[in-house]
Amino acid sequence: MKRFYLLILFSFFTSTSWAEIKTQAQLAEFTQNTELWFSVTDNLLATSSRFNGQIELVNNSRLALPSGKADWVIYFHFIRKIPTTENAGVKIEHIQGDLYQLYPTSTFSGLAAGKALTIPFESSPWIISYSDFMPRAFMVAAGLTPEVFINTDTEDFKQFVRPLTEPRQLLRNIDDGDKVATMTNAQRFKQHQSAVQAKSGGNKPMAASSNRIIPKVQQLKAHEGQSTITANWQIVAVKEATAEAQYLQQQIQQLFKLTLPLHGETHPANGTAAISLTIDTNLNQAERYQLTISPSSIAIVGNDTAGIFYGIQSLLALMPIADHQTELSLPLVSIDDAPRYPWRGMHYDMARNFHGLAVTKRLIAQMGRYKLNKLHLHLTEDEGWRIEIPGLPELTEIGAVRCFDLSEQQCLLTQLGTGPHSSGSGNGFYRRAEFIELLKFASSHHIEVIPEIDLPGHARAAIKAMEARYQRYNIAEQPEEAVRYRLTEDFDHSAYLSVQRYTDNAVNVCQESTYAFIDKVIAELQLMYEEAGLRLAIFHMGGDEVAKGAWEQAPACQQLIKNHPDVTGIADLKPYFINRVAELANNRGLALAAWEDGLMADPQTPFPRRQFNNKQVLVNAWDNIWEWGYGDRAYAFANAGYQVVQSAGTNLYFDHPQEVHPEERGYYWATRYNDTERVFFYRPDHLYHNAEFKRDGTPITDLAALLGRPLPALEKPENMLGIQGQVWSETIRTAEQLEQMIYPRLLALAERAWHKGSWEPEKASDSARADWQSFASRLGEVELYRLQASGSAHYLPPPGAKLVNGNWQLSTAWPNLTLEYSPDQGQNWHNVSAPLPAKHKITVRARLGEQSSRSIELAPGAH
After folding, report:
1. pLDDT tens-digit profile of 276-328?
2. Interior CA angle at 414 toward 408 and 415, to 5°?
3. Would you say 392 and 472 are in contact if contact means Cβ atoms under 8 Å apart?
4. d(C-alpha 595, C-alpha 621), whole Å
5. Gap between the Cα atoms of 144 and 117, Å rounded
6. When comparing pLDDT for 199 and 57, which is higher?
7. What string of H, E and C letters represents the secondary structure of 116-175?
8. Which one from 93, 265, 397, 545 is the annotated catalytic residue?
C-alpha cells in the first residue's frame, strides 16, 4: 500500500514536470518562476560594429517546455538589430521596431524543470549600457492571454540583465578602438577635486551664490542693506500685467504662505511698501526687464509683459529657499537684464513613451522659472500618437495604445518595454481638453507650444490607426470614407528598414488622402489653439530619417512619376512632399519647421529657401557628429535664408548618459556622455569650438582636415534664432526617469540660451571655470532644493572615492551634497562624517533633500 502511494506521488510530479502548457494557470506558473536574462558576451569582435549576446531561460518552475515544435512563443523588446538566427533549436525573428519573437523548431531538445537554456546571437552595433535592454519580455502559448516573465517586469535592469563589468562588455569596437573608458570611482574623485567639496548638511545658501541667479543676468549691482517683505506689503500692477501680478501673488503664497493683496494701480496707496509691475517700451528689446529692490519698494519694469514675468522670476530667485516664513529678506540690488536669443527652447518627446499631463505642466513651470520660452512637443511617432483629433478617434484609440495584438486592430504592436498589456508603461495621450489646458498653462508662463506631427517617416502609429479606420469603413460599406484619410495603399511592395527597424513607417506621399489627413490635423490643432485664446503660428512637420527605399514600389508613386511634370523619379518625391506640406501650412498662415535632414536637397546643400512661400521656415540643426561631415549645417541653413534653432546632438540631447558608465540611462549615438557641464559649455556663437571629440573619444585638433573641406563662416547671424534642448524618450518610461534626465541639464541650457558668458568661446579660461563653479554652487545650494519643492525629480551625480591609508575618501560633484553609506546593501543609510575604513564592503551615495544619486559599491582591495 505504501509503495502504491509512492507511485501515485511520483506519477503526479513526473506528469506535472513535463506537462505541456495548456492553461492560463500553467502559463502564469511558468513565467512567474522562470527567469529570462539578457547578457552581452563580447563587444570587441573582429568584425567592426558587431557584438555577441545571449538570452538565458532559467526554468525554476515545475513545468517543462517539450522538445520539438510547440505552440509557445516568447516575445521580447530589443533595440539592436538581430538577424533571423537559430541556435539551440530556437529561432529568433524580428517583427517590427524593437519587438522580436523566439520560438522552438523541430530540433529543440526541450527545457526541463530546474534546467537552463542559453540562446546565443550576434547583433549590431554594440551594447554598453543597461538601459539598452528593455523590460517586460512575455510568453504566449495555446492562444492564452500573454504572461510577462516576472523578473523582467521591473525598471531594475539588474533583475534581468547580467552584469556589465568586463572591458569586452564596456568598450565599443568603433573606428580604431574605443578611447572613452568607463568612469571609475577613483577617476570621479579626481574630477571632483576642482569642485567645491560637499558640506555635511544645512540648506542655507552661501553668500557667494545668494545673488547668482540662473540664468545669469546681464547686469547686477548690489547695494548695502536688505529689504524685508511682510504681510503689510502689497502688489500693484498696470492692467496689462494683471496676469503676471496674480502669478507673483500665487507664487509668494504657495512658496512662503505669505498673502499679499493685489491692486490694479500704478503706485501704492498711502505710502505702503509695494512690489510694482509696470511696462516701459522704451527699454527697446523684447523680454527685457529692470528689477530694483529698495528697502521699502520693489520695482519691476518690463519692455513687455514677458519682461515683467522674467523680472518676477529673478525676484523669486533672490528669495530664500526655506518656506513658511512670515518675512522675506532680500538683498538690495539693481538688475538690468535681457535675453541672448529670442528662441530658448526645450523639445520633449512624449510620443515614444507618454508620461502624462502633470509632468508636462511641471516641465512648463520649470521652463518659465528659468526663462525658456519655446516648448517643442513631439506629439507623434512610430510608437504612439499622443493627441486627440476630433473625427479621427482611431488615432488615439489605437495609435496611443501598445499591447499584444499582431493584427493591430485593437492597438499598436508593443514596443519599448511596454509589454503585452494596454496598462503597460508609455501608453496614453492628451485629450483635447487637456491639450487646451496645457496651451493655456504654457501661455501663462510666456511659453509658446510648437506642435510636431512627424512626417513622412516616423509615422507608423498614424498609418496603422488610419488602416484600422479604413477597415472599419470598408466593413460598413463606405468605400469613399474608408480611403479619405488613408496613409498607405494596397500592393505597395516597397522594401526598406528605418533607423528604428520599421518596414512600414513612411506615409505614402503620392496619395491625395495623405494631404487630406495632414490638413485635417493642422485644422484641428488650429481650433485647439483658438479655443485656448491663442494662435497657432508654427507647424513642425518633422521630416527626419525617412528610410531609403520608401515609395519605390508604391503604385500611386509610379503613377505620379508618370503624370507629374516636376516628379521624374523617386528622388523627387521628398521635395514634392515637403512643398505640399509647406503649402498646406502657408495656406493656413503658418510657418513651417522641420528637422535638418528633412530640408536637405543633398548631404551638403539645403533646398533653396525660395521654393517655400511660408514667411518663416525654421530648421532644427541637430546632426553635428563632426566626423560624419554635417556639423556645419547650422551655418549652411542660416546662410541659405532659413531660421535656425541649434539643437546639437553632442551637447543638447538630454537623453544621452550623464556619465560614462553602464548604469547611466540613455542612448549614446552622438556622444558617449553629456553631463550638465557639457551643456553649460556649449558655445552657440562659435559653432566649431564645440568640435572637441569624435564619437570614439579621439580629440579633434583640425576640424577642416577631418571634414576634408573648408569650414563655412556664418554670413547671416540674424538667422540664428537660438538653441534648444532635446529629450527623446525611448529609454524613459516613467515621469521620474524623465525628470532625472532633464534636470539639472535644463538649467545649463537656460544659462546658455539667455546669457552669453564673458569667457566665450574659451572654455578652458580661468573666468570660464569660475563661472562654472559659480553655477554649480548655485545648483547645490539653491536650485536643486527649488526643484524638489516644486515636486520635480532631478539627477545627482554619484560620489567619487579614493583609497588612502586604508580609508575611503569621498567626494561630490557639486557643493552641499550630503554623503551617505550603507553597510547592508542599501537597507539602512548613515551620514558620512569622516573617511570610511575599507574593512568591509559598503555602498555609498550622494544625497540632497529627498533625492539621492546612483549608488556605488566599495570593497576592500578595490580602487
Report:
1. 999 999 999 999 999 999 999 999 999 999 999 999 999 999 999 866 677 89
2. 135
3. no
4. 7
5. 23
6. 57
7. EEEEEEEEECCCCCHHHECCCCEEEECCCCCEECHHHCCCCHHHCECCCCCHHHHCCCCC
8. 545
CA–CA distances in Å: residue 808 to residues 175, 607, 627: 37, 59, 41
Across 706-719, average pLDDT? 94
Alpha-carbon gap, residue 535 to 150, rounded angstroms = 48
* pTM of the full structure: 0.95
Provide the grid cell at 262. Answer: 493685489
Cα 259 from Cα 261, distance rounded (Å) = 7
CA gap 11, 7 in Å, rounded: 6
The answer to whether 581 and 592 are in contact (CB under 8 A) is: yes
Do residues 137 and 119 make contact, with C-beta atoms less than 8 angstroms apart? no
> Bridge partners of 801?
810
* 383-396 confidence digits (pLDDT tens): 999 999 999 999 99
What one-character DSSP code corresponds to residue 547?
Answer: P
Q: How far apart are CA 251 and CA 249, in angstroms?
A: 6
If phi > 0 it is left, if psi is from -120 to 50 it is alpha, else beta; for residue 177 that is left
Secondary structure, 3-state, 660-713: CCCCCCCCCCCCCCCCHHHHHCCCCCCHHHHCCECCCCCECCCHHHHHCCCCCC
As given in the structure block, the three cell numbers for residue 635 are 551655418
Element (H or E) spanning 579, and its range? helix 573-587
Quick one: cell of 86?
A: 537559430
For residue 545, indicate whether it is catalytic. Answer: yes
The answer to whether the beta carbons of residues 815 and 195 sit under 8 Å apart is yes
